[in-house]
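Researcher: Sequence recovery benchmark, item below. Answer with residues only.
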């Protein structure tokens, strides 16, 4: 249950529900309902009472802040006919935390220290509003704040106490640079037993997830299918579980004690951004240059003006020189370079929107690839950024 006018009015995407449902299913729960309500105390109260009649676990997010429209605590307390108690220790912790960066403390901060009678506190390592876990006649309610960066670590801290004995298991796999339809057709042709539930999910920027779920007495069938998928799509297989191309690349470079750098044009810094989202990225990533204009390609990366005149910025010759240029600048073991046409303008008859060139080099051998990916410019940029990291990953794994 997600609380907030910004959710029901469509102002922000309800990513909390997606994350919570996914993690609950992975831990053996059957999720039966997702609901969203406005910041209305009576609505929230009535919805809590309705849901508790039908379900064993209710996870709520949102409405735990200090403002007037944060009404979740009050509504849940009324729904359960319990008192709200001001916890002085939590209040001191909140005021101390906020005073580190803001001296004139508003009194409404103490609202976040109101605890529903009988609730167990869920610490918030990122923000100020703690969560709460409440037992209600053998059922549980979990209250979590709305910001995902706060909610996720808090939910991870409590999910171990929610685990139930599972009679099934799941294999989650990520593939990249292969269409979802191709993977689905391959699995259909194998004719897997009906006891294996197959689910696929495609993302422009991240690849295709495949989730194989089966009862324990049929789990070997799921394992056999996963092995066949990897054998068939060996280069495209990124890894198991909650992985990503950037996470897999980080691990490969870290194991080998290698570094890389990036020269990017059309992606505008997205390649660098993706890799530095991984904690510890400084061990393997030395830096990058966004050479969006040809002037930067020439003056910073050392691309020859003759190359640009003869072949253009979006060419094999240009990305090779960009790659060697960033490698010289940083001294990295590997270098990636990317140049393409994100659109909607800038195309020519022989280089339409969606054309992009990649180069990966270790200073001795170049791996160059050309792709045509005619999508909206930011979908294009996101996909191209991941593909650049994927090429280096494939190179390290000996696939190219």
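Model:
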């Amino acid at each position: 249950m997600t609380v907030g006018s910004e959710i029901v009015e469509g102002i922000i995407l309800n990513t909390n529900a997606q994350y919570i449902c996914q993690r609950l299913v992975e831990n053996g729960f059957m999720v039966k309902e997702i609901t969203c309500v406005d910041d209305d105390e009576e609505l929230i109260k009535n919805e809590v009472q309705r849901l508790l009649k039908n379900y064993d676990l209710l996870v709520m997010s949102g409405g735990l802040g200090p403002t007037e429209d944060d009404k979740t605590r009050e509504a849940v307390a009324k729904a359960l006919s319990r008192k709200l108690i001001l916890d002085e220790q939590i209040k001191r912790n909140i005021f101390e935390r906020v005073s580190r960066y803001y001296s004139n403390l508003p009194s409404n901060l103490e609202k976040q220290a109101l605890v529903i009678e009988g609730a167990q506190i869920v610490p918030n390592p990122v923000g100020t509003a703690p969560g709460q876990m409440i037992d209600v006649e053998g059922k549980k309610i979990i209250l979590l704040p709305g910001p995902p960066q706060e909610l996720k670590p808090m939910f991870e801290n409590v999910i171990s106490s929610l685990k139930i004995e599972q009679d099934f298991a799941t294999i989650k796999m990520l593939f990249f640079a292969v269409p979802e339809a191709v993977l689905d057709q391959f699995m259909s042709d194998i004719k897997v037993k009906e006891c294996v539930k197959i689910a696929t999910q495609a993302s422009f920027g991240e690849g295709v997830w495949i989730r194989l779920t089966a009862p324990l007495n049929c789990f070997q069938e799921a394992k056999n299918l996963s092995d066949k998928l990897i054998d068939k799509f060996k280069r495209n297989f990124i890894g198991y579980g909650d992985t990503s191309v950037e996470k897999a690349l980080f691990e490969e470079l870290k194991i080998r004690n290698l570094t890389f750098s990036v020269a990017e044009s059309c992606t505008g810094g997205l390649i660098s951004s993706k890799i530095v989202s991984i904690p510890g990225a400084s061990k393997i990533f030395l830096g990058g240059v966004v050479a969006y204009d040809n002037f930067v390609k020439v003056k910073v990366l050392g691309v020859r003006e003759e190359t640009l005149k003869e072949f253009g910025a979006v060419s094999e010759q240009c990305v090779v020189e960009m790659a060697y240029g960033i490698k010289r600048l940083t001294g990295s073991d590997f270098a990636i370079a990317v140049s393409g046409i994100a659109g909607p303008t800038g195309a020519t008859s022989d280089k339409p929107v969606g054309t992009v060139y990649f180069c990966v080099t270790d200073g001795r051998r170049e791996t160059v690839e050309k792709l045509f990916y005619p999508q909206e410019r930011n979908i294009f940029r996101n996909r191209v950024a991941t593909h650049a990291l994927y090429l280096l990953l494939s190179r390290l794994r000996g696939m190219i």
